[in-house]
Every structure is written in C-alpha cells, then in structure tokens.
C-alpha cells in the first residue's frame, strides 16, 4: 500500500494535480465499466506506475537549488515605522564571528538611520535572540525599537512572512540574495558582500549561479574591504564599480586588546583550522606546522600550539608525539579573550579577502602569518605585525620563522601594535555605507 501511495504522489508531482485526478477518474470509470459489461479483470484505481529509476528534471533542479528558494512573502499595509530586514542563515552561537557579526552591526545602523524597526530572517536555524544581544552589548549599539525574528526555512513550504512597500532587505550571501531577489524588487536590496563567493566552488552550476547574482546590474553592494572591491572590479564586475561602496571592518579596543604578560611560560601559536572551509587551506597549514617542527623552526619546548575553528579532527604533531589543544565554536567573548593571549598565528585564506582572524589577532597584539593571493600582497598597511608569504612551503616556513622572531621581540611587536591602522569604530567605518543606503527611497 505504501508503495502505491508513493507512486501516486510521484505521478502527481511530475504531471500535476489536474492530470492526476483525470487519470484516477478514467481508471475508476474503466473499472466500473469492466464490472458491469464483461468479465475482464478491472485495472486497479491507482496512478500508473512510474519507474523509480526516473526523476522529474524540474524536481531534481529545484532540489539542487533549494537554498535559493524564494522568500514566501505577502504584502501588508505600510506600518507607522519602516523596517530593515536582514536575511542570513543563522545568528546562533558559533556563527557570530566576523561576517555574521558585521551584518548584524550594519543592519542595526541602517535601522537607526532610517528610524526603522529591525527584523532578522534566518533560513537554516530558528534565531536565538541572545545572538543579536551579544553583538549589541559587545559593540555598544542600542536600538530604539523592538526587534522581530522570522524563520524562513528554505525547505518549508508552509511559512509566510509579511513585507511592505519600501522595506529594505540586507542580504548576506549570494544564496540569500538570490532567495530575496525572487520575491523583492532589486532596488530594495543591499547585498553585503564579504568575499569573492564565486571562489567557494569549482567551475560548475553553483559557480554559475553565484556569478549571475554578482553580475546583476540592479543590485547595490556593501563590500568588506577595498582589497575585495578592487579584486571584484578587476575580474570584470563593472556593476560593482557602479553600484557598490567599500568599507574597512573595525576592531574596537574594548573588544580586541593584548592582555597577556611578556616572558611568562610558553608562548602560544594559534592555527586557524577549518577543514571543511577549503579556502582556509587546512592541510597545507598542517604541512607547514609539521615541517616547521621537523626542521627546528618551531620548538615545542617554547610554543604551545592551539587549533581554533570548527570540525577539527584529533591530530598529533611531531610524528605523533604532540597533541595540540583544540578550541571549537567559541562564543564571541571567549574568542576575543583567547585572541588576547596569542603570540603568533598562522591564518591562511586562499582568496583575495584578508579574512577576519589576521585583523582580530593583530588588533589583539599578536603577530600573524598569512598568505598572498591576487592583489592581496601586503597587509602591513593595516598592521606591521601581519606578515604575508607566497603559498609555497619554503617561503611560508621562512615567513613563519620571521614571525617567531618578531613575536619574541616584545619591543618591536608592541610598537607595531600601537602604530596599527585598523579602524576602531564601527560607526565611523560604516558611515559612508549608511549614508548611501540608509536614506528611504
């Protein structure tokens, strides 16, 4: 019976409800005629069998693009106060670092500028309001109006959320942008772009869909760092040059600052370890660390090695003799507290964006070794404690050795930290973005 029901439902999905009902009616009629007019064996009154090896092309394509499923919106009368809606995957613990936190800050400042309420629409997890509360408390941001939360799971066909004329939507990835574009006028969307997201994928369907979103001539963009802006324009996105404004992220001293004492105990080497985020070059990083130990560049009698990130396997270094400490899914406060104790960090990012950890850590007094890529050649303009290397083993080892010496040189390291040019105020960093996009249309 279950198999018959599944076949009937599959027939309905492939051919539509009308054809399904017509087929059922026809088969019932044929059965009735067979019972009254002859002794032929009647056909069962079910949908025709569909070979389970076949699948609807439309079904298959829709499943592959599920994360881009359009927001299910209905229009409501314009309220007394306008609204800014942030569309993101999640704001829950373990996901608030860097990019998600930046979206929360920008959304709050846009709402303040517009005199608007703020709504956070999440697509993979139901929002925990405490996530936003952490961001607001950390950066001293206050909202004048109550915040709304809506869960718009991309695989749920039952939810509906309201919108009104002139509502501003702040999207946070190409897929949340695609989902919003399917339901909202493009001129009401601002796309917070914090990486060349085409580089998340090999050349295939996802790369193509991402590229289409990035090329959209009507979208407006807020680009995280001028380095990323310049790269996007140089790779042919003329629409970004016309419709985008770049900003530099901020690292307030009340959040990021050195707290460790010099010359006490072992020094700390942090490795930014995210094996499932391939652009972070997890395996190359392991090769660098293991080779540095083998060649005597990194002395484990002097250094504690700490892996920080997500989904980190249990790993032994030094031919199985040393187990680094693993820290995963830290809260924002715990992450900032740990960053203040780091002496040296290895943070790899195989894209043009500098990524947040080199900035977080240098703003906390650490020396950081990272890699060059495209126009990302030298980050000393942000802080001279950030050292860049080519992505080959020997140059990276040489730069790591340079980083070790600089981390030991407390006087020079401290002087570099005090002279850093990282912005320290989010309101100042985002002022031009808020000015450009914060005025109601």
Entry keywords:
Rossmann fold; alpha/beta; 7-stranded parallel beta sheet; 6-stranded parallel beta sheet; 16 helices; 16% strand; 441 residues; 38% helix
In the CATH hierarchy, the third-tier topology of the largest domain is known as Rossmann fold
Strand content: 15-25%
Which architecture name of the largest domain does CATH use?
Answer: 3-Layer(aba) Sandwich
Helicity, as a percent range: 25-40%
Tell me the structural class.
alpha/beta
How many beta-strand elements?
A: 15
Arithmetic mean pLDDT = 89
From the alpha carbons, calculate the radius of gyration and give it in angstroms: 27 Å
Describe this structure in words.
There is one protein chain. The chain has 441 residues and is of the alpha/beta class. It folds into 3 domains: 2-64, no CATH class; 71-250 and 430-437, Rossmann fold (3-Layer(aba) Sandwich), CATH 3.40.50; 267-418, Rossmann fold, CATH 3.40.50. Helices cover 38% and strands 16% of the residues. It contains 16 helices and 15 strands. It has a 7-stranded parallel β-sheet, with helices on both faces. It has a 6-stranded parallel β-sheet with strand order 12-11-10-13-14-15, with helices on both faces. Helix 6 (174-181) crosses helix 7 (205-214) and helix 10 (282-294) packs across helix 13. The radius of gyration is 27 Å and the shape is globular. Residues 40-45 have low confidence and may be disordered.
């Amino acid at each position: 019976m279950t198999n018959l029901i599944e076949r009937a439902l599959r027939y309905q999905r492939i051919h539509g409800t009308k054809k399904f009902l017509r087929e059922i009616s026809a088969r019932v009629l044929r059965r009735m005629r067979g019972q009254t007019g002859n002794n032929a064996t009647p056909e069962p009154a079910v949908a025709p069998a569909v070979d389970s090896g076949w699948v609807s092309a439309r079904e298959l394509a829709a499943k592959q693009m599920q994360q881009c499923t359009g927001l299910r919106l209905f229009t409501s009368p314009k309220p007394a106060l306008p609204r800014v809606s942030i569309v993101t995957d999640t704001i829950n613990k373990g996901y608030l670092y860097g990019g998600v936190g930046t979206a929360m800050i920008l959304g709050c400042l846009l709402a303040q500028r517009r005199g608007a309420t703020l709504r956070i629409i999440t697509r993979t997890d139901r929002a925990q309001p405490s996530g936003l509360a952490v961001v607001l408390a950390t950066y001293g941001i206050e909202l004048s109006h109550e915040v709304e939360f809506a869960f718009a799971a991309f695989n749920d066909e039952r939810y509906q959320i309201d919108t009104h004329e002139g509502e501003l939507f702040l999207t946070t990835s190409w897929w949340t942008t695609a989902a919003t574009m399917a339901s909202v006028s493009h001129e009401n969307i601002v796309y917070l772009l914090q990486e060349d997201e085409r580089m998340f994928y090999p050349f295939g369907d996802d790369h193509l869909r991402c590229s289409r979103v990035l090329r959209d001539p009507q979208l407006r963009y807020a680009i995280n760092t001028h380095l990323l802006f310049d790269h996007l324009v140089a790779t042919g996105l003329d629409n970004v040059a016309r419709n985008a404004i770049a900003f530099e992220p901020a690292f307030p001293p009340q959040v990021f600052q050195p707290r460790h004492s010099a010359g006490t105990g072992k020094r700390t080497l942090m490795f930014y370890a995210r094996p499932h985020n391939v652009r972070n070059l997890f395996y190359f990083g392991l090769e660098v660390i293991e080779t540095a130990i083998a060649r005597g560049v990194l002395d484990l009698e002097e250094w504690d090695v700490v892996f920080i990130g997500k989904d980190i396997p249990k790993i032994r270094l030094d031919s199985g003799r040393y187990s680094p400490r693993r820290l995963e899914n830290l809260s924002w406060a715990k992450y900032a507290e740990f960053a203040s104790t780091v002496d040296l960090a290895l943070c790899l990012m195989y894209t043009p964006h500098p990524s947040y950890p080199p900035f977080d850590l240098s703003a906390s007094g650490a020396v950081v070794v990272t890699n060059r890529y495209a126009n990302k050649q030298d980050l000393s303009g942000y802080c001279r404690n950030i050292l860049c290397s080519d992505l080959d083993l020997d140059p990276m080892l040489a730069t790591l050795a340079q980083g070790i010496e600089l981390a030991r040189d407390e006087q020079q390291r401290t002087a570099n930290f005090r002279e850093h040019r990282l912005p320290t105020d989010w309101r100042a960093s985002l002022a031009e973005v808020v000015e450009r996009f914060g005025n109601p249309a």
